Give the backbone structure.
Amino acid sequence: MSILTEKEAKAILKKVLAFSKADECECNLNGQLSGNVRYARNTVTTAGEISDLTLVVQSSFGKKTGVATINEFDDASLEKVVRRSEELAKLAPENPEFMPILEPQKYIKTNTFFKSTADISPEYRAKAADDGITPSKKNKLVASGFLNDNYNMAAIMNSKGLFAYNVGTSVNFSATIRTEDGKGSGWVTRDYSDVKYLNTAKASKIAIDKSLNSVDAKELEPGKYTVILEPAASVQLLQNMVGNMGQRTADEGRSFLSYKAKDGEKNAPKNKLGEKMFDERVNIYTDPAHPDVPVAPFAGDGFPRTKMHWVKKGKIENMPNSQYWAKKTGTEYKPGGGQFIMDGGNKSLEDMIKDTRRGILVTRLWYIRQLDPQTLLYTGLTRDGTFFIENGEIKYPIKNFRFNESPIVMLNNIEEMGKPVRINGNMVPPMKVRDFTFSSLSDAV
Amino acid sequence: MERRDFIKVTGAGMGAMFLPVTGNIVTAAELLDKPMDVAVKKQLADIALNAAKSAGATYADARIGRYLNQFITTREKVVNNVVNTESAGIGIRVIANGTWGFASTSNMSPDSIAKTARQAVAIAKANSKFQIEPVKLAPVKSVGEVSWKTPVKKNAFEIPVKEKADMLLEVNNAAMSNGASYITSIFFLVNEQKYFASTDGSYIDQDVHRLWAPFFASAVGKSGFKQRTSLGNPVGMGFEYLDGKKEDKIYVQGANVGYNNSYDMIEDATNAGKELQKKLKAKSVKPGKYDLVLDPAHLMLTIHESVGHPLELDRVLGYEANFAGTSFATLDKWRTKKFQYGSDIVNLFADKNQEYSLGCVGYDDEGVKTKEWDLVKNGILVNYQATRDQVHMIDQNESHGCCYSQSWRDVQFQRMPNVSLRPNEKEDLSADDIIKDVEKGIYIAGRGSFSIDQQRYNFQFGGQLFYEIKDGKIVDQIEDVAYQSNTQEFWNSCVKLAGKSDYRVGGSFFDGKGQPPQVSAVSHGCPTTRFNNINVLNTKRKV
């Protein structure tokens, strides 16, 4: 019983609130049904299923708050978890940043649930593995990969009468296919809310082709190159940037969005809200109802999610914050969005390659770590398919590079963007970027 | 990564850090509940083993676990969070038709356990059609009914929450009174009560404790901001680690204080505040070749990344190819018995029984008694880290005892043991002795940004504190340093090691591996060590 209907969830949460003696009480129910299969060396290595339902109760007395959770749902257990949270609240120190729970809210409708995904069976998972293993064996390649499907339920109710409920599904698939001698490696990843869009055989074929085509890579000198970054190559840099856009750290002087006051400048702003920082084609926003990347229409505290731009025409349009920081600085409360969408163009990746005179195609970036939070300078390496492009064609595979680059620079050096695709739950376009900095070569395949 | 399994902690200098949590949040008093009776655990484990055998398993093991955590998070003058979690259940692993199967449940009624055991056998049989070679286990003799405990002097869970929170606030105050603008400080306390039983006839009860007390401080100046994290280590100890004893402090002339078997967190926070102010004014490094002198609190992570991971046998064989990657240290290199991993003074060893280390246990999660063995001897690659089902692939018939699971509900697999660099056994040199011969160098302390490729050739590592060395003396604190090298070249440029008095054990509390990902905690011991002629970059950039 990990996934409850709206009626069942409401009934349990009402019962929980009836036990509450606190000034304020907020309860969350989170259910999960998930399954996975993992394979390597052309064989299935592990497979499993997880079923879980958890109740979280947060009680407050004045500015003192306690949290407790349980995964048993008889009346005695429900009362016990409420008492536990109240006991912890009484022991906790006062939190000067305490904020009251929300009044009832209105939500938009988002289509996050797909029966097709909820119905994924162990046989489907086994076939997904076989879609990589069998053709790999035929090509004398070695397949490894992972498929994970999720069916989630989230419900929230508080003592002020707020209630929200959502069910959602997702499936993630990735495969790394290598040559037997270890000289070639290709990779692919796909994720969807609706599994009907997932074709594991077709996806595995991409990894197979990249593996075969990446053998005997040539060395290019490190330096600045025009690159075509597949969405999987740029998504983590973008995710890191969006994740560092918070208003509080910027206002505290500890982020790339902190404003550096000029000598003698009076009433200087604390952050770079409204400042143009990127190419004017850059638009990054959250949209819970986006058909390709739908998310629940509410945040964990029950606050409604709506479409909101973080970057518009290259300018910082909004910065996420907490309820406390919004109140302290006299701004609106804007929690983060649960996903992001970056606008692009209409071209496919293949068309972008055709229109490139000289450049490097990057499948993915790996082991990305921050070097300087002030400039968002990151380091990491290319992996599983790096190719040299000349006169509109992929000419030959090249050895992997280490990069030292900032997404701020990346978003200022955009030559062209293609059609966005879903990646890690976000929408990201393939991007052609000039002067991307590679600092050294790696022997890794 | 399941979102519900992670608590998001944000704070000074941390960005956003997701802390893995399994289990339910419980009150402090419940964390001190007595562990489940061993006789009951034996009964339940036997139900699992018998049900698995009846269903057709040729081997089975059962792990009954109770995992307790306490996390206390503060920033500046505020206690953000006190979280207590508990998770209990049973994980059952079987071999049927020569194939592994696994299932777990939190419902520990006899019926549920038997059903879960049969489910594990069913999964094994279903997967057996994809099996190429049957699983072959290295033999393990029954150890009978035994127990093992981390030798803690002060159980961290028994210290009142208020006392712990007040200590963190004192740490914050020390940093802020001495130059930090912001600070987040945290206690992570872990207690694994785990019981292992297998059809080999072993019944092993273990009580494992670990502790980590990091802080993340930052200072904002006119030209920007700087960060400094703590130099203490995560350890396999109780709260006695925070006693900060005089005899456990190691001073380096003109630079930092290092900590051995106990940690003075308030002193470190005080120093962090002062060093942050120096960082704001410090000159930027001139890129080029330098001789590096690496402090143990820094070098431990270099060992972790460039020795620990590439010598995991499952990586070498390709089991991690789709996630963490494979390894440059291939079997053909090992088979030559001549592969020069490092210079001839480099001796790297693995163990799971080093005192105070994170990896220290009596037995691993498949019932193998832990031990010590060489990985690199006199610079030559001699061995890997292996589990019962893989060790035959390197022509050995005794498991190294490297099997671990983060909880009862996840399947156990090969995880890194402690991997350490032996100190200079000829001369007991100090860190100052290592620095004094360096003409043009950089001394690096603390862990910073670490990035390495998927086969562990090319790496780029940063640190917390950087000091310019000129003509044998530390002359100045500098900034923006990262070094880039190739694993084999780097270890072959190792020219001088400090002695056993300088040897310290650091570690990683949340090392990630596997799909779905699991964390484990692992330590690395080493002395202050010199590496010659390493490529140093400047990480400052205008955007």
Q: What stands out?
A: The longest strand of chain B covers residues 78-96. Chain B has a mean pLDDT of 92. Chain B has two domains: 3-230, 284-538.
